[in-house]
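Dear H.,

Thanks for agreeing to be a second pair of eyes. The structure we're designing against is below in token form, covering all 480 positions.
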């Protein structure tokens, strides 16, 4: 069994150059790191009067984009356990003296008043962020918001009349077209590299979170550490992606780089600017890719589309009459042949918006207009204040499925997912615990929990059940 390289585990550190020089890692067929770099494309090949083919001209696109790409330096007093273990073991770095960790990456200015988009893993948990422009001016930056599920973060510096890039429509990007990747990894001024789009809608399983959207633009550009958060631009110099990852055995470029499509990045940025958090819409299905092997197992005679593996009771797909086993073939008239493509299209919309879904059942196409819902099962916008309960509890919460209700003999409940530091962990609650009541009040949704805990102080009794049907009671103490 092939080992996953330690570099993958450090991906969330994004472009950490200042910590130490990289050492060679163990060999692996697929080692993916959130250190990303660039690919440089530009205009189509032109021909001289004599009929000789000339190379693509990257000058205009490069000159337009380099000034909008910045160098980002972050400082941390303490990182997470994975970060600490990796760098302490690999480089022998000792932070016990209180010296801050230092990490670097890139970012892209997207407004004239100083909003900068970068990767979440570049600035996550940073205590201090410094941004250096291509003209060597430096500014302290503040985090506006982050979205780990897409690896996008928005930061801001104070000022006006900054050079910036305009978002292009990444749906129009074609495999084979030239692109430019621009980064500022070494604080030496921005640099560019050239390449072509090798593939779209790539899922490289690097974000590692439920409901993560991985639908990367893949390029063959030369990429090296420190370019995370930099720009992928088209031949007009417009932004078509945010560089996020490379495929590498050593931490240096070996052939492939990956960028978050601009349509996803733009929507996340707009959400963070307008609402303070990302508005994620769901249609209420668990999708599955249809491989040749999967098609044989399910008795399917097609390999295109996305298979509906499970369907939520209160989801919009179920309410529109869709069933387990349906095959989604397009959303909003855009063909989807993979889970990545499907999530990319849906990820561009907010709760309350309607998407047209074409799906096949028994060899016949059907159409459903689905109103997207938020994670709480409603169509409303989730305000920033509404998610403070998640931060307080230190967990992501999700409704239980129909199958879980049957197994646990429950009518309702909310399951604890991705447990972090917070009140639930402190009380001893473990992941996959299903909360059935809180403060002696029935819990049917996350909204119920938020209502119960609003302005609540002191001890709160939490009742629930684990997947093995063991019931448990915990006392959660909310301090004054």
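And this is the sequence the design step returned. I haven't edited it by hand at all.
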């Amino acid at each position: 069994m092939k080992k996953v390289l330690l570099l993958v585990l450090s991906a969330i550190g994004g472009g950490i150059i200042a910590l130490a020089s990289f050492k060679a890692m163990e060999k692996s067929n697929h080692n993916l790191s959130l250190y990303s770099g660039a690919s440089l494309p530009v205009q189509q090949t032109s021909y001289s009067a004599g009929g000789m083919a000339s190379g693509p001209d990257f000058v205009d696109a490069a000159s337009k984009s380099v000034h909008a790409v910045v160098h980002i330096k972050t400082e941390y007093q303490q990182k997470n356990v994975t970060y600490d273990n990796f760098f302490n073991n690999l480089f022998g770095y000792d932070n016990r003296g209180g010296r801050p960790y230092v990490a670097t990456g890139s970012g892209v200015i997207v407004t004239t008043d100083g909003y900068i988009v970068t990767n979440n893993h570049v600035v996550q948990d940073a205590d201090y962020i410094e941004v250096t422009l291509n003209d060597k001016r430096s500014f302290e930056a503040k985090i506006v918001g982050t979205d780990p599920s897409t690896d996008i973060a928005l930061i801001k510096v104070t000022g006006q009349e900054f050079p910036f890039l305009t978002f292009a429509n990444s749906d129009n990007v074609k495999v084979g077209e030239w692109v430019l990747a621009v980064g500022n990894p070494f604080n030496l001024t921005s640099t560019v590299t050239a390449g072509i789009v090798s593939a779209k809608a790539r899922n490289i399983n690097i974000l590692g979170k439920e409901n993560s959207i991985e639908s990367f633009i893949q390029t063959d550009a030369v990429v090296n550490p420190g370019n995370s958060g930099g720009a992928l631009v088209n031949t007009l110099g417009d932004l078509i992606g945010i560089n996020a990852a490379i495929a590498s055995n050593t931490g240096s470029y070996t052939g492939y780089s990956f960028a978050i499509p601009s349509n996803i990045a733009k929507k996340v940025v707009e959400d963070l600017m307008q609402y303070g958090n990302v508005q994620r819409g769901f249609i209420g299905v668990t999708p599955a890719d249809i491989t040749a092997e999967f098609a044989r197992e399910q008795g399917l005679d097609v390999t295109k589309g996305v298979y509906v593996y499970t369907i939520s009771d209160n989801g919009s797909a179920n309410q529109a009459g869709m069933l387990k086993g349906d095959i989604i073939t397009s959303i909003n008239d855009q063909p989807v042949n993979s889970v990545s493509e499907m999530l990319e299209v849906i990820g561009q919309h907010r709760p309350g918006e309607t998407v047209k879904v074409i799906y096949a059942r028994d060899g016949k196409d059907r159409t459903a207009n689905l109103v997207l819902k938020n994670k709480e099962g409603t169509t409303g916008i989730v305000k920033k204040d509404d998610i403070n309960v998640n931060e307080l509890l230190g967990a992501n919460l999700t409704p239980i499925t129909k199958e879980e209700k049957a197994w646990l003999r429950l009518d309702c409940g909310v399951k604890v997912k991705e447990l972090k530091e917070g009140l639930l962990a402190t009380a001893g609650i473990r992941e996959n615990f299903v909360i059935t009541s809180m403060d002696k009040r029935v819990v049917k949704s996350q909204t119920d929990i938020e209502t119960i805990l609003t302005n609540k102080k002191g001890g709160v009794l939490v009742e629930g059940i684990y997947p093995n049907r063991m019931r448990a009671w915990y006392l959660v103490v909310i301090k004054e």
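Two observations from my side: Residues 1-53, 79-96 have pLDDT under 50 and may be disordered. DSSP finds twelve helices and 25 strands in the chain.

Warmly,
E.
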